[in-house]
Amino acid sequence: MRKIDRILLLSGLIQTMPSIIVGIAAILKANVVLSALAGIATAVGLLLILTVLTKKDPIIACYPPIANFLILISCIAVNLCSAASEIILLTIVSFIVASIGFIIIVLREEILK
Amino acid sequence: MISTRHILLPLLVLLLLLLPNRILSDKLPIPIPPIPLEDNVQLAIIGWNGTHEVLILSTIVKMHRLYTNGDVPNTPHGVEYPQTEGGVPPPPPSIPIRIPKVYLMELIPFKSVPEAKRASERAFWVLGRYFIKFKFTPLPLERSKYKGVDVIWERKVGVHQIALVEAHNSEDLIKWATEYAKKYGVMPPSPTKLRKYVEIFEDYLERGYKYTAIDIVEVKVYSMLVEPIKYIFRSSYIYYPLKVSNAYNGKAVVRIYLVVKDELNLDPVISMGFREIGRVELNYDEVYRVDKDLANLFRKDGRVKVILLEYRGDSKFDRDIELRQPGIKDYFLSTIAYLIPIPLIIIPLILYKRGKYEKN
């Protein structure tokens, strides 16, 4: 397994696991907005994992985490969701994964060598 | 001959009539007669058990004091004269001014017939205590020039400038306090009074009270908590009237303590501009100490959640607070909202192929 695959797999796990927990909690609370955000975050995490497992293009998979983070902070900014602990957790995790994705996109030449 | 007070009184009356009077809480209070009322705080405790709601409402009204030649503020510790910034006392009072009675008219819409009861201000203090996050940032010990006095910390809390000192000598403590007061433009008491203070504090120090808090209060406004009123009514959802306050232009502060048994989706309230300040869990006895009727909404063996919500902003609300317990439809919608993005994101990206990487 190449270095980039290991990074993507790890990022996928970091993104997926908390998102699933937050998603289940959101369903139990019947919070539609939080459920949707957790669903997007879970999908992004799964996408990273599946990209590695199915040996697809790793660079393309780095864009959705950035979009996910932007969606989250936009929702907080327009008061669509509260700054509850679940949202804060999702935002922190998404920020970490989005940063990794951003670095991979910027340094793709060096990383893919 | 026309004296100064003959000119001042009509001028003051004219000023009172000209000043815009605003009251911005959401219970639609209308002040009578016109008095400058600003930055009012709306306080509410809402208890809900699924069928009944207990709504305790109050307003904090701030009246800006009007300093005139004869305006003498009465403090709980006796009559004090207002101090100017430079420490120069204003001329002695000549005309005692009485603040006129202020009446507020409140309009609150209800769906069912409510039962109105008198509530105690204590309810707000008791609940508020659970949310106080008073963090001290102790400063390094400051060496005072008076040997017997050490400053432990000094900080500003609202209109209070507080210093906590450790004193071993009563005379030094009073000298330090006098200098401290002078620093903030407060005139020191007379030597006779000072001697009396030295005696009083000597007694305290002998009894082991070595810490003294010196509090300099900036008296600019009178704040009054209007005696709360309690409404008990049947309601299948949490209800709090807000749209009614659209009648006012300007700023509003709304503080709501939500007392509920089950988890609630607060997003509708958050989207209105409310912030969740904090939440605590209380048992029956603790809720009983806040209010008897509030506690009677819940079972004696259970615990309830108290969520503190706050709104600071324009007095413009597009809807009332109406929070319902989630139904099957809401659970279904949440599940769909969670599951839909997964295939929507994964399938197109997994199907997408990029030639360059495939070659690698």
Give an overview of the whole structure.
- The complex is a heterodimer of chains A (113) and B (360).
- Chain A has one domain (3-111).
- In chain A, 79% of the residues lie in helices and 0% in strands.
- Chain A has 113 residues and is an all-alpha fold.
- Chain B is α+β, with helices and mostly antiparallel strands and 360 residues long.
- Chain B has three domains: 4-121 and 227-323, no CATH class; 142-221, no CATH class; 328-359.
- Helices cover 27% and strands 31% of the residues of chain B.
- In chain B, strands 2, 3, 7, 12, 13, 15, 16 and 17 form an eight-stranded mixed sheet that branches. A four-stranded antiparallel sheet of chain B has the order 8-9-10-11, covered by helices on one side.
- In chain B, strand 8 (142-143) and strand 9 form a beta hairpin.
- In chain B, helix 3 crosses helix 4.
- The relative contact order of chain B is 0.17.
- At the A-B interface, helix 1 and helix 2 of A face helix 8, helix 9 and helix 10 of B.
User: Residue-averaged pLDDT of chain A, rounded?
Assistant: 88
**Which stretches of chain A are poorly predicted, pLDDT < 50 over at least 5 residues?**
none
Structural class by secondary-structure content of chain B: alpha+beta
- Strand segment count of chain B: 18
Sheet of most strands of chain A: none
Taken together, the total number of domains of chain A comes to: 1
**Biggest interface and its residues per chain?**
A-B, 37 and 35 residues
Number of domains of chain B: 3
